[in-house]
Amino acid sequence: MARLPRLYLPGCAQHVIQRGNNREACFYDDADYKAYLAFLKDAAVKYDVAIHAFVLMTNHVHLLVTPSTEQSVSRMMQAQGRRYVQYFNFTYGRTGTLWEGRYKSTLVSTDSYLLTVYRYIELNPVRADMFAHAADYPWSSYQRNALGKPIQLLTPHPVYCQLASNDVERQKAYRGLFRGRMPERDLTAIREATNKAWALGDDRFKAQIEAKTGRRATPLGRGGDRKSEAFISAKNE
Q1: Sign of the dihedral defined by the CA atoms of residues 56, 45, 213, 205, in that order
Q2: Which of 103, 54, 98, 53 is nearest to 74 (CA)?
Q3: Which one-letter DSSP state was computed for residue 108?
Q4: How far, in Å, CA of 211 to CA of 109, rounded?
Q5: DSSP percent split of the chain into helix, strand, coil, nearest 5
Q6: What is the CATH number of the domain that holds 127?
Q7: CA 237 from centre of chain
Q8: What is the H or E stretch that residue 64 is in?
Q9: Residue 55 gets which letter from DSSP?
Q10: Distance CA 206, CA 200 (A)
Q11: Closest CA to 145 of 120, 125, 170, 114
């Protein structure tokens, strides 16, 4: 099956995943995490991308971002990825690729899924059984969004800002979102949308994305594309 082009829409939040080639480690030392974040910040500023949430895992990265133009995210990821590979190969005396081809991404509805994706991203170390709580992991945006530690890379999304009228109450409300486990249906929806380049949201959001981008934002129904000539012809036989 042909791979669908990514969905791009300026001003719409995106969940982005960048994986190490063959799921091999991309970070060995604290200096590596710091270098990645520094390069990411430079690229985000250059290409005008707001970064709301992130987690750097051993062999992959999750980001929640909002681009200003259609090409902002792809240019940011290319610039940051190239620079980090040069750093990583020089540091560890290696050559060749580090990343697993194309990054994966999905557009995220601010009405129904944005805060869920924040939570999904920052709970990665907990789901991986690395730490008991998101607060224990140093390489994620939970440190800023929930605990108030300064991270210059981050730009709060308006939906996050609406949690409360000031930082202290906002961070308290945000921490409250992390009580209990995420429903399996939310995990599945986020993974499928991101890995298959669908839009993440309700039917109205998906219809809006399709109208604005001219590209399918949901899987085809069983039996194929019901609007295609092949389907209509087969139905009438």
Answers
A1: positive
A2: 103
A3: B
A4: 15
A5: 45, 15, 40
A6: 3.30.70.1290
A7: 45
A8: strand 60-67
A9: E
A10: 7
A11: 170
User: For residues 11 and 109, what is the distance between their CA atoms, to the nearest angstrom?
Assistant: 11
- Boundaries of domain holding 67: 14-236
Task: Establish if 195 belongs to a structural domain.
Answer: yes
Domain presence at residue 4: no
Strand order through the sheet with 49-56: 49-56, 60-67, 14-19, 104-107
Give the relative orientation of helices 114-122 and 184-196 as an angle to the nearest 10 degrees.
Answer: 90
Structural domain count of the chain: 1
The pTM assigned to this predicted structure is 0.90
CB atoms within 10 A of CB 227: 8
Residue (of 79, 85, 104) closest to 24 by Cα position? 85
The C-alpha atoms of residue 187 and residue 199 are separated, in whole angstroms, by 14
Residue 5 in any domain: the answer is no
One pLDDT digit (tens) per residue for the chain, 237 residues: 456 677 888 999 999 999 999 889 999 999 999 999 999 999 999 999 999 999 999 999 999 999 999 999 999 999 999 999 999 999 999 999 999 888 999 999 988 799 999 999 999 999 999 999 999 999 999 999 999 999 999 999 999 999 999 999 999 999 999 998 899 999 999 999 998 889 999 999 999 999 998 888 888 765 444 444 433 333 333
Structural contact between residues 142 and 134, judged by C-beta atoms closer than 8 angstroms: yes
Amino acid at the residue 94: R
Spatial separation of the C-alpha atoms in residues 155 and 13, rounded to whole Å: 12
Sequence-separated contacts (24+) of 127-134 with Cβ below 8 Å: 128/57, 133/178, 134/178
